[in-house]
Glycosyl transferase family 2 (Pseudodesulfovibrio sediminis), 339 residues
Amino acid sequence: MAAPKISVTMPCYNCAETVGRALTSLLAQTCTDFEVVAVDDGSTDDTAGVLAEYARRDSRIRFFSIEHGGVIAAANAGIEAARGQYIARMDADDESMPDRLAAQAQLLDSTPDVGLVGCRVRFGGCRAQCAGYAHYVDWTNTVLTPEAINLHRFVEFPVPNPSIMFRRECVESYGPYRDGDFPEDYDLLLRWLEAGVRMAKVDEELLLWNDPPTRLSRTHPRYDVDAFYRIKTEYLVRWLAANNPHHSVVHILGSGRTTRKRADMLLSHGIEFAAYYDIDPRKIGHVVNGVKVVDRNDIPAPGEAFCIPYVASRGAREEIALFLAERGYVLGRDYIPAA
């Protein structure tokens, strides 16, 4: 049997209630040259039974069971078993729009310098109860081009993992998901970007990204905020060494407790803070661990400093970007956002 062009890998664990909808959405794709590699991660419900029934109906669906080892082991097992030129990811509680595989494969076909593609995603949770996640989805849907993804990689995870499709050569060259006390999907994205993999998105909503209360990113400590900032800091330090002309000195925009907690992770990696900058007159003039809090309007001229905005409150990131642009700062040359 000839290998398909696309392999969709799907880790499955106790998802008997949702995996049928996920598979049905894939079988409705306008592109037909694909396989689904579903990995039953030792489920204790009827997940294997549902997968077996779908595999019986359509030969493009392959599944196998492994001893329960978690999502990383299951995801990597699916990648290892994949036969396609392009490998896509999907979670068993999400749904792909009919044109997803065709549109993403076409983007890879037409841009040989791009190694990984995503798409805009539709938030499938309750916006009132899950406002933070919904706002994250709104943000990631604005980060579409290789340049935007590259320069906003330290803000948030810019390409949602269930939406990605990548060339087989990328995983062969730069490795699959790694296990550790960090979010494996963010680590893979940062690792591949660091290696020079260009990433882009189809400017269409092609995935319904559901947000159940049992989603691992809500329940597992590997995905908590501190874990994200720990792995982000490791890659940011190396990025600064390569791109900050004033290395290892940086200027931190923001001086609140949360900003300092996250920015201070840089200190153990040998990064030095010249100053914190703020707009709150109650903070200006204070000295925090030997570092002064300075009025933001007194920030050095472009070329004289490299800045890292660490302010994450809604709207603040955009306001800071406008402030820096008005002063001639260029994203990626004079500053990089990290919150």
Notes: The first strand starts at residue 6 and ends at 12. The mean pLDDT is 95.
